[in-house]
Amino acid sequence: MKEESRAIRNQIKRSHFSEHSAPVYMTSSFVFSSAEEAAQTFAGEREGLVYSRYDNPNTDEFALKIKTIEDGEDALSTASGMAAVFSSFCALLKSGDHIVACKSLFASTHQIISTILPRWGIEYSYVDIKNPGTWAGAFRDSTKILYIETPTNPALDLVDIKWAAELAAANNALLLVDNSFATPCVQKPLRLGADLVLVSATKFIDGQGRAMGGAVCGKKELIEDIRTFTKPTGPTMSPFNAWILAKSVETLSVRMERHCGNAHKIAEYLESLKDDIKFVKYPYLESHPQYDIAVKQMKSGGALLSFELAGGIDQGAKFLNSLKMLSITPNLGDSRTTVTHPASTTQSRMSETERLEAGVTPGLIRLSAGLEDVDDIIEDISQAIGKSRI
Ligand SMILES: *Cc1c(COP(=O)(O)O)cnc(C)c1O
Description:
Structural class: alpha/beta
Largest sheet: 7 strands, mixed
Strand content: 5-15%
Shape: globular
Bound molecules: pyridoxal-5'-phosphate
Number of helices: 12
């Protein structure tokens, strides 16, 4: 069976009720039939659950489905995407170590790397996505991790994952890839050589803007190291969220087909409006500067696109204010199409120069294609562009 089918069929063992779909196991701890059984379970000499901060049937089922769909050896569920990122850094790094990271990062990841980890003596160097030729020079003997996101947010630039994996390996570093934007249905970084994949399940995996969650997936011994960190520190996913998100993985591939199909049609529509549009960025448009990387490592162009209207920031603001259906909200990966103006919201704390380096031009608009009928989405965009011209 293909990963997508196995991710639907793989589930935890049924209880004595023989339920078809896994129930929610809202329990903090698990009981033992004897003092001896308790002692053996604690010592790891027999299989069995102990306490939900360590393990729970629902969080295990979610991790099992992520492991299957990402095609990894093992996976661990976490309370949020950021808990997955932070736990991975904490488990794999110690004082004196160094990270090389591509500068186009999710804002909270940037904050962890540039302000939190340095307090514990972990250093970093940022490299520029536009100049991959300079990346090799950033590695030191103490470099343990190369960290990337692809496609990047919100500029939708790409990193060649296979190339990055070879670069990391040549420098005795691990490659960590945040796959929240593409999702495992569009891109499988572990197959391209990544050591670990990090996911925010809050985005497309939930897909309906309801529950927070995250996961780390990859080599067994690395996941074991991260588990050793998360068991006592507790960035654990709630069983209820795990129950929602495990079900959501089962519908991910069919939802992603619609998300990505809609995004591609919207991108083509915007590109056809020559006079109104300065540029449209979408990995599967031939006009994308890294189109060859996109077709090599992504099954489709993903669900996100960005564009700038010819009238820059003023026309962008009028466009947002003229929308009737699309939601103006920073979330992405929702069943509803969402739009944001990164320069005044998610990237507003950066300086103008930092924004331009991250590909955030003043009038840039990021769109996350939802599951609505694409004709309705295009209709709303079209009428809002019409009004924004005046
Ligand atoms: C949202 C997001 C995160 C953080 O995930 P949370 O679940 O919000 O903690 C990390 N990386 C990327 C690319 C994201 O979009």
